[in-house]
Amino acid sequence: MNGLADAVLVVHAALVLFIVGGLAAIWLGALFDWQWVQGRVFRCVHLAAIGVVALLALLGIACPLTVLEDWLRHDTGATQGFVQRWVGRMLYYELPAWVFTVAYVAFAALVALTWRRVPPRRRDRRESASSR
């Protein structure tokens, strides 16, 4: 089960990277005209991801990925492996829950503000028809 728990941990880290790195990519994409970060699908998925995280924190619900990882590691008795030790250090901090809630809600607000300041591009009908 430890290998499965490590896989959940890596997926969790990838989601965090998508949320945090996605915001940086959106702003850089606005500067350098990167089409892939200006698309509506990317932007909707990004906003939804941080929105779910913030909502779960506001409702006091533990992250399902953390709960699943903990469940998979329960009573394994094994020592920490490389993935658990290093990826876990990047994800988990000993702070009060309210600190995370404030951080997640503030980050979600920043992503929403970014939506207004750097709106996703709408595809022109002529442009989409010519690309078929």
Oligomer: single chain
Class by alpha and beta content: mainly alpha
Task: Estimate what percentage of residues fall within beta strands.
Answer: under 5%
Spatial gap, N to C terminus: 47 Å
SSE topology string: HHHHHH
Bin the helical content. over 70%
Largest sheet report: none
SS summary, helix count:
6
Number of strands: 0
List low-pLDDT spans. none
State Rg.
18 Å
Overall tally of domains: 1
* Mean pLDDT across all amino acids: 84
Task: Estimate the global geometry from the Cα principal axes.
Answer: globular
Descriptive report:
Keywords: Membrane, Transmembrane, Transmembrane helix. This is DUF2784 domain-containing protein. The chain crosses the membrane at residues 12-32, 44-67, 95-115. It comes from Paraburkholderia humisilvae. Helix 1 packs across helix 2 (40-58). The mean pLDDT is 84. The chain has one domain. Helix content is 73%, strand content 0%. The protein contains six helices and no strands. It starts with a helix and ends with a helix. It is an all-alpha fold.
